[in-house]
């Protein structure tokens, strides 16, 4: 039996050329080797397959029955290898796949929604599933093959994950246009005495980045309502004296509110796009990531 470790692709290629040319000299010329080298290659092929493979005739060589059988297989193997090494052809219009995006609620609204609308034009056969990731381990979701892309803050991804920063986010204060402080400059003191609604991504939280900033100044605030659904925020702010400190890109999507810079320095964060190693070299996913990144530049 032939030891596959001793049969390389160059030998198979030479075998196919010998089958085509049925002449050692012409095969040598085609492969840019000397005739003695070509004869040595033929001897190696004979040893590998334990068959003469070719017999000499007056004007060259003719293949044995065994060589003809092997030749069909060798040509298919070389064609398959060439296909493997040929860059995959990609056409967005014919792309058919399901893209699973894990993202926080407000990111689904400000990034994922425009992405879906763009894909409807460029790649209409791509299905998109938007999945919540609040309170979940992003790395575990990738390892369990539950999501293909994640859009989340940098705190929720690890340095060993494939990732790209989307943008830097800062916090801004939002309140009703009829709020008593809507047209009045805020000081740290007056700010800390306002009643707040807080967007809690994990649910039930009453402290966040704003509280840490106030604490550093020796101040505290009262969070009266904690919600984990952004759909509740517009009505809460429009119809009450509640104030919210929100990521700016989210706050800009709300209607009938006044946006004011907080009178204190609140640490912002960066939003990242993350993906798993299994999709790193896939041309379709590379194109999808490129489309998404272009939307936030």
What does this structure look like?
The chain is of the alpha/beta class. Helix content is 39%, strand content 22%. It has a five-stranded mixed beta sheet with strand order 4-3-5-12-6, covered by helices on one side. Helix 8 (209-215) links the parallel strand 8 and strand 9. Helix 5 crosses helix 11. 26% of the residues are buried.
Distance between the termini: 59 Å
Low-confidence stretches: none
Helix and strand element order: HHHEEHEHEHEEEHEHEHEHEEH
- Helical amount: 25-40%
Number of alpha- plus pi-helical segments: 11
Rg, rounded, reads 33 Å
Largest sheet: 5 strands, mixed
Based on Cα principal axes, name the global outline. Answer: rod-shaped
The overall strand count is 12
Strand order of the biggest β-sheet: 4-3-5-12-6
Q: Note the beta-strand portion.
A: 15-25%
What structural class results from the helix and strand content?
Answer: alpha/beta
The overall pLDDT, averaged over residues, is 91
